[in-house]
Every structure is written in structure tokens, then in C-alpha cells.
Hints:
Elements: H1 9-12, H2 16-37, E1 59-64, E2 70-75, E3 78-83, E4 87-88, H3 91-98, E5 108-110, E6 126-130, E7 133-140, E8 146-151, E9 154-159, E10 185-190, E11 193-197, E12 203-206, H4 212-224, E13 229-232, E14 243-248, E15 253-260, E16 264-269, E17 274-279, H5 281-287
Antiparallel strand pairs: 1-2, 1-6, 2-3, 3-4, 5-9, 6-7, 7-8, 8-9, 10-11, 10-14, 11-12, 13-17, 14-15, 15-16, 16-17
Amino acid sequence: xxxxxxxxxxxxxxxxxxxxxxxxxxxxxxxxxxxxxxxxxxxxxxxxxxxxxxxxxxxxxxxxxxxxxxxxxxxxxxxxxxxxxxxxxxxxxxxxxxxxxxxxxxxxxxxxxxxxxxxxxxxxxxxxxxxxxxxxxxxxxxxxxxxxxxxxxxxxxxxxxxxxxxxxxxxxxxxxxxxxxxxxxxxxxxxxxxxxxxxxxxxxxxxxxxxxxxxxxxxxxxxxxxxxxxxxxxxxxxxxxxxxxxxxxxxxxxxxxxxxxxxxxxxxxxxxxxxxxxxxxxxxxxxxxxxxxxxxxxx
Length: 299
């Protein structure tokens, strides 16, 4: 059988003019496609929710229905939680909030044309304010799992990078560092041992005499200590008054209640209302080199 026997009869019978017209149609379609794709040119940028520069933001407020407002403020280059707790802020959490200013969206609507109640925006459960710009958070779209957010007179659909905004405890906005960055530790008063730095820079330990290298390792462990979780302080009868106190230059004293569990070390600051959860491996490095003090309560 000849190969051309498979060619449809209407193609075989096309005239030269018909072939020319078909070629022109294909050429025009190709040119239209090239014009539309614009090869070599970047796709148009998605619009940002605001024109705010994160570097100019100095105040953040989180309003949640039925809960105290969370207030954060930038002081020099450091963010601080100012209400309802007063502590150095968690920089990762703050960064997530600042990113709202430069968040982009390819889907947006005029708020005046929407039934805002349908999208959880008539009376938002949570809102975030960056300086004077308010972001009202609505429902999650059940089809693409993006969040409705109102900014001014526009409603946007954005990737929900703050999924726990309504439920996370205030303590989560406290820095996981036990000792503020750059602090000058002058003394450690721990269960069973006391360390003091002398005028000549040497350390003195009592009642047990420890080598300078071990003392420095202990001090460094406190300076670098970072919790894997910061939670609201939970008072319990199992906690006895075992304490660790860190004295800083200038006379500031940080007091911790110490609890050792099977898998973690908990350093609580009742006056601040938070407790730091650290891995059990931190107990040896932070409390006493090589062993656990026998008078630390466990639960």
C-alpha cells in the first residue's frame, strides 16, 4: 500500500492557493503566540498588598477576638514584645509579620462589591497592624487553601503563611534565647554551685572549685542557650523552689525556676509568665558540668 494512501483526500486535492492560505493562517497564529508570550521579557509582577517598606515598620499590633492585644515595637535594631508581656521578641515570628507588607497576590476584589460576611471579613477574628496599615484576616478558601485578607478597600487571596495567628500563645512571640544577645554575665547562682566573675576577669566558684575552662564552658552554655519552645508558664505543685539566677552587668537579675523531666529541661520565669523548654542535653551543660544536681525537682 502506498504511503500517500493514508493522506485524507481533501488534503491531496488542495490547490496551490489553498496551501498558501493555510500557510498564512499558521504564520499569523505563530506571530500572535510569540507576541502573547513575549519571549525574553519577564512576566508582569504580581501586585503587593502594600507599598510599605519592612525596614520602616516600627510597630506591630495583633488584635484577636476575646484575647489581649499583642504589641511589638522596634527599638534600634531589636524588636521587643511590649504587651501583654515585656520581653525581647522572637525575630522569626516578627519577620513573618513584616513579610505581610511585601506579600503579593494575583487575585483581588473590590471590598465594596463583596458580601464580606461570606468571607469572614465582616467582623474579622484577627487583624494585624503594621504601623498604620491594617490587615484584616478572613476565612480560608476551601478550594485553594489561600486566605482572604482585606487591606483598605481591597480583598486579596494570599498564601496562608500565618496559619496559627488566631491560636498561638503570646509566649510564642518571646525570643527563644534565655539570655538577651550581647549580655554581659557577671554571676551564675545555680543549684549546688555559685559562679562569680572577679575584677581581673577570672571566675570564682563555690563551694566546689572548678577549673576556669569548665566555668567558661558553663557560662558560654547559658549565653548561647536557646529553647526549642517557649510556652505560657504553668504553675504546678510538682515544682519546688529550685532556682537558677543569672546576674548581668548593670545589676539586672534573671531568675528561673528549674524542672528536669525525662526528656527536657524547663526553665520557667514566673514573673514574665513564660517557660523555656530545652532538650535534656542542656541540663548537664547549663546546671553542673558532668552531672545533674540532686536537689532539682523532676516531673
